[in-house]
Design brief:
The chain has 338 residues and is α/β, with parallel strands linked by helices. The chain contains four helices and 40 strands.
Length: 338
C-alpha cells in the first residue's frame, strides 16, 4: 500500500463496482462482493489489493503473489492462480490506473503556512514565505530558503540546506543533504497508458529517498516512484537541470553533470560518472564505476568500470575510432569533389 505519510486511502470498493468502473469483466461474478482497499504491484500485492499483468513473463510473479484481484488480458486470464479474482480487459494497465485513482489520493496541505503538527527541531532556520505541511519532520541545523514548499509527511534530516523556491513532496531526505534553488523533489513521474477514451495518467504512488550528503542542483527534478521508491545514494552529487525519472536507483558517490537525463527504472551502481547532456534509456543497468561521456545516449546495459560514449553509446575506444574513420572518409570525399 502507498505510504500513509504521503497518500490517503479512499473508501474501499467491491470487485463488482470496480469492474463496472473500469469496464472490465469479472471472470467469476460470485466474487463480486470481495472488497478491495488498494492497488499494488505484483511483488507487494495482498488479499485486499488489486494488481495488473501486461506481460506473460511476469506470470511466475503473479503465481507467487497474494493479490486479491488482477487486471489481465483475455489471452492470459486462464493462468491466474487460485484465489486471485480476474478482471478481464484488453487494457490491464488502464484498469489499474483507474483503480488507483479511485482508491488513493495525494495528501494536501490545508491550514496555516507551517502546520501545527510539523515537528521542527531547535536550530532550524526558516526564511520568509516557507510552507511546511502536516507531520513534516525537520532536523536541527537545517536551513530552508525563502518560498520553499515542504509537503505533508516529508522528513528532512539534520544540517541540510534547502534553497529558495524548492518544492519537496513524498520524500525522505537524509542528513547534510543540499537541495539548491528551484529544484523539485517528489513530483509525479511521467506515466500514462491508453484507455477507453484516450490516455490515462497512471497515479505515481511511490516516494523519493535522498540519502545522507546528497546534493541536488538548481532546477533539477527527481520524480517519485510509480509504486517503488526513487533512491539517490549517499554522497551522490547531481548538477543543475538534471532529470531523474521514477523508480531510478542511483548508487553512492555518483556524479552527474548538467542536463543529464535518466529514464525510468534505471539502476546505477556506486561511483558512476555522467558528462553533461548524457541520457540513459529506461530499464538500463549502469555498472559500478562506469563513466559515460558528455552527450552520449545509453541504450543498453553498461558493464562495471566501462568508459562509454557516443550515440548510441559504446566503449569509448570504439566510438573514437568510428569518429576518426568518419572524419577520414569525409576528407577523402571532399578531396575528390575538389
Amino acid at each position: 500500500m502507498p505510504d500513509p505519510r504521503f497518500f490517503m486511502d479512499k473508501d474501499p470498493i467491491s470487485l463488482a463496482d470496480l469492474a463496472s468502473l473500469t469496464g472490465a469483466e469479472l471472470a467469476d461474478p460470485s466474487l463480486g462482493d470481495r472488497v478491495i482497499r488498494g492497488v499494488a504491484i505484483l511483488s507487494r500485492a495482498r488479499a485486499d489489493t488489486v494488481t495488473f499483468l501486461t506481460d506473460k513473463k511476469y506470470l511466475p510473479d503473479l503465481a507467487r503473489s497474494e493479490a486479491g484481484a488482477c487486471f489481465m488480458h483475455p489471452a492470459q486470464a486462464g493462468e491466474a492462480p487460485e484465489g486471485c479474482a480476474v478482471l478481464i480487459t484488453r487494457q490491464p494497465q488502464a484498469g489499474y490506473a483507474m483503480a488507483a485513482q479511485r482508491l488513493h489520493a495525494l495528501r494536501v496541505h490545508e491550514g496555516p503556512s507551517i502546520a501545527t503538527t510539523a515537528r521542527i527541531e531547535p536550530g532550524v532556520s526558516i526564511a520568509p514565505g516557507v510552507v511546511i505541511g502536516p507531520d513534516v519532520q525537520v532536523g536541527s541545523g537545517t536551513v530552508i530558503g525563502a518560498n520553499s514548499v515542504i509537503g505533508p509527511g516529508v522528513t528532512i534530516g539534520r544540517n541540510a540546506v534547502i534553497g529558495a523556491g524548492v518544492s519537496i513532496s513524498c520524500a525522505l531526505i537524509g542528513d547534510r543533504a543540499q537541495i539548491l534553488a528551484a529544484a523539485v523533489i517528489g513530483e509525479a513521474g511521467f506515466g500514462a497508458t491508453p484507455g477507453p477514451k484516450g490516455l490515462i495518467d497512471i497515479p505515481q504512488l511511490g516516494r523519493v529517498i535522498l540519502q545522507d550528503g546528497v546534493t541536488i542542483g538548481s532546477q533539477t527534478c527527481v520524480d517519485r516512484g510509480a509504486f517503488d521508491d526513487t533512491v539517490i545514494g549517499e554522497n551522490t552529487k547531481i548538477d543543475n537541470l538534471v532529470q531523474i525519472a521514477h523508480n531510478v536507483r542511483v548508487g553512492r558517490n555518483c556524479v552527474m553533470a548538467g542536463q543529464v537525463g535518466i529514464s525510468g527504472s534505471v539502476t546505477i551502481g556506486d561511483g558512476c560518472q555522467f558528462g553533461g547532456r548524457a541520457g540513459v534509456a529506461d530499464h538500463i543497468l549502469v555498472g559500478e564505476g562506469a563513466q559515460i561521456a558528455a552527450g552520449s545516449a545509453v541504450l543498453k546495459d553498461v558493464p562495471a568500470g566501462a568508459r562509454w560514449g557516443g550515440i548510441p553509446a559504446q566503449p569509448i575506444r570504439n566510438w573514437l575510432r568510428e569518429v576518426a574513420w568518419l572524419n577520414k572518409m569525409a576528407q577523402r570525399r571532399e578531396g575528390r569533389q575538389e
